[in-house]
Amino acid sequence: MSVLATDNFNRSTGLGANWTTMPAMSGGITIVSNLYVAGIGGQSTSGGYWNAVSFPNDQYAQGTIQLQASGGGPMVRINTSTGANYQYIVDNPGSSATLAIYYFAPGPSYTLLGSTTSATSVGDVLRLEAQGTTLRALLNGVVKVTATDGTLGSGQTGLYFYSGQSLYLDDFEAGDLAVAPTGRQNFMTLLGVA
Questions:
Q1: 187's torsion region: left (phi>0), alpha (psi -120 to 50) or beta?
Q2: How far apart, in Å, are the Cα atoms of 149 and each of 126, 132, 134, 152, 162?
Q3: How many CA atoms lie within 13 A of 177 on its CB side?
Q4: Which residue blocks in 41-183 are alpha helix, DSSP H?
Q5: pTM over the 0.70 mark
Q6: Residue ranges per domain, the chain?
Q7: In this structure, which of 46, 53, 113, 160 has its CB flanked by the most CB atoms within 10 Å?
């Protein structure tokens, strides 16, 4: 596993060149008080994806919750060839205390893939992983929801919001889920027998 993207959002304004606002979502995104937030209050969906690197098919994205009045969280396998219209999202429970994985399409259209009852707090790390057709939502490193879907096989990573400036996120991180061979595996690979 390797980290391919990080952003602590420690700047006064502007997402910067490494971010692209999601055209399929109705609201914008911005930086407020060194945090990543929905930029247009009252809009139903907002989001952005990391454009500075191409991510492998098996990937993850995560962020730290700083305010949780409503939904939002990491996104994976964002399809940028269709205007970033399709992706997987993990929805922060906010006041409903329901952690869920969705397939998102224009409309907006949300297809629930899996959910659980799970409260969150400020400072919690919310993470979404895509590995093959398996999707996992993790809270502070613990798997809370597992789902299966093969609709999207590749794409970018990013952060998503629902319902205006009601969720702030910090410390974005994204990368690949590949596990490097270790010990005997490395040795056998060098010998050409594994």
A1: alpha
A2: 20, 9, 7, 8, 22
A3: 19
A4: none
A5: yes
A6: 2-191
A7: 160
Q: Cα–Cα distance between 146 and 143 in angstroms, integer? A: 7
Residues 110-141: tens digit of each pLDDT: 899 999 998 888 899 999 999 999 999 999 99
CA distance 98 to 144: 10
Q: How far apart are CA 141 and CA 4, in angstroms?
A: 18
Task: Specify the CATH superfamily of domain 2-191.
Answer: Exo-inulinase; domain 1 (2.60.120.560)
Element (H, E) at 188: helix 184-191
Q: How far is CA 81 from CA 35, 77, 78, 84, 85, in A?
A: 28, 11, 9, 7, 9
**Which of 84, 79, 69, 96 has the alpha carbon at shortest distance from 169?**
69
